[in-house]
UniProtKB/TrEMBL annotation:
Protein name: Cupin domain protein
Alphabetized SUPFAM superfamilies for the sequence: RmlC-like cupins (SSF51182)
InterPro entries linked: Cupin_2, RmlC-like_jellyroll, RmlC_Cupin_sf
Endpoints of the signal sequence: none
Species, as recorded: Pseudogemmobacter humi
Cupin type-2 domain location: 39-99
């Protein structure tokens, strides 16, 4: 495999679970298993569907806007603004809310790829081969 260049305006997947404009740019659909990069636009008032990454950490860099990162597992709501980075540990139920009167533009994603969540969302079929050393089972 060689170096490749991707562009946010040509994503191979859009996932409404994250937002009306969630572009999966680098993810298992592009054969990237350990580094994922999503470009996400949340309109004012929009929020992610609360979700959990059972095998991945999620890292979200805020390029534009202000909002709130909600940690449902630990009952926390943390405000953020452009230039902040939101880190979500494995297993924490969370969502990003554009609830402070502005839209949000962010980049980031789970690492390693959240294969169970992608399969549940129908983005990866069950028969997609994954690398031999890659975790696809949800811990109990």
């Amino acid at each position: 495999m060689a170096i490749r260049v991707f562009h946010r305006d040509n994503p191979s997947l859009r996932l409404p679970l994250i937002s009306k404009d969630a572009r999966f740019v680098v993810w298992p659909g592009t054969e990237a298993w350990n580094a994922n990069m999503n470009y996400v636009v949340l309109e004012p008032g929009e929020a992610n569907v609360p979700h959990v990454h059972q095998i991945s950490e999620d890292t979200i860099y805020i390029l534009k806007g202000r909002g709130t990162a909600v940690d449902y597992t630990n009952n926390l709501s943390l405000p953020f603004h452009a230039g902040c980075l939101v880190h979500v540990p494995v297993g924490v139920k969370h969502a990003v809310h554009a609830d402070l009167g502005e839209g949000i533009v962010s980049v980031g994603g789970p690492a390693p790829a959240d294969v169970p969540l992608l399969r549940k969302a129908g983005a990866l079929p069950p028969d997609v081969p994954v690398p031999g050393n890659f975790c696809v089972e949800v811990p109990e």
